[in-house]
Amino acid sequence: MSRSVSLSLRDVHLAFGRHQVLRGVDLDVAQGATACVIGPSGSGKSTLLRTVNRLLEPDRGDVLLDGRSVLRDDPDALRQRIGMVFQQFNLFPHMSVQRNITLALRRIRKLGEDEAAAIAREHLDRVGLAAKADARPAHLSGGQQQRVAIARALAMQPQVMLFDEATSALDPELVKGVLALIADLSAQGMTMVVVTHEMGFAREVADTVAFMDAGVVLEAGEPAAVFESARHPRLRRFLSQVL
Amino acid sequence: MDPLRTLWETFFDWESMREALPEMITVGLPNTLILAVTAALLGSALGIVLAVAGISRTRWLRWPARVYTDVFRGLPAAATILLIGVGLAPLGMQVWGPNPYPLGILALSLIASAYIGEIFRSGIQSVEATQLEAARALGFSWGEAMRRVVIPQGIRRILPAWVNQLIALIKDSSLVYFLGLLASQRELFRIGQDYAANTGNQSALLLAGLFYLALTVPLTHVVNWIDGRLRHGRPATGPADDDPDDLDLALPGAAGGNQR
Question: CATH 1.10.3720.10: does it fit domain B3-232?
Answer without folding.
Answer: yes
